[in-house]
Amino acid sequence: MDVLQRIEAALEMAVSKGIGDGCPPLLAKAVRHAVFSPGSRVRPRLCLAVAHACGDDSPTVSDAAAASLELLHCASLVHDDLPCFDDADTRRGQPTVHRAYGERLAVLAGDGLIVLAFENLAWSTLRQPERLAPLSIIVGRAVGISHGIVAGQAWECESNVDLTAYHREKTAALFAAATEAGAAAAGMNPASWHTLGENLGLAYQVADDLRDVASSAEELGKPVGQDAAHDRPSAVAELGLDGAVERLIGLVNGAVESIPDCPGDDDLRALVRGEMQRLLPEPLAQRLR
User: Fold this and answer.
1) Which end of the chain is less enclosed by CB atoms within 10 A, N or C?
2) What global pTM score does this model have?
3) Quick one: pLDDT at residue 13?
4) To the nearest whole percent, how much of the chain has pLDDT over 90?
5) Which CATH class is domain 3-288?
6) Burial category of 253 from C-beta neighbours within 10 Å (exposed 0-12, middle 13-18, buried 19 and up)
7) 8 Å CB contact between 13 and 148
8) DSSP state of 94
């Protein structure tokens, strides 16, 4: 089974178990719409890549960690698309959850996915309970009100925003959780993997800012020009197009250089550089080569 098959199987197992027999039918459909719309699965892929580099001695735990991170990411997208934030019509080339099922079910689906992420970790560590606590702390911190997705979204409500702090919480926190969780799921010390995830997450957000001004809605599968439309902080607004590209290059190089020595370090370096090139419009991607 390849990595993407592992991820999809782990997500299907988690969602099916979470929905169970008693879930209201429309909520079940909204949750599935949120999770199984076509996505790159970059965070769980990163988690499994680090787990592999660390030996991946418990695939059940690493698969669960990867799936839980993706559930949290999907929850954040559902909430980010709501009328009170971006009021987006499309996501991953399909109608957003609140457009397809209504705002009330979108809020509930996002909330339910957050809870399901932690349930999934608990279900999957019953045979290795010593790994649950570090994984729960890593994942919880990534979505927290002080450091994590919630904090990042809240920075959009402030009048004065530090761009790096905003990007660190909104995007980089979940990437750092992916690299740390991959190590923790394999029974290794996660601390040495934090910088890789944080730098890659910061780079990912800069790339997203660049795509918002240099791509089309058809290419992205979601509306473009949203940063300017919602007066959100962005790397392009603060640094200009060339400055944002240079910032991205520096972050990618920093991510690559931070990878600890391990049997899979060459594969990880290739994954980091390839992911950034994939994300950018071709004229900008050439500057990373």
Assistant:
1) C
2) 0.89
3) 97
4) 62
5) mainly alpha
6) middle
7) no
8) E
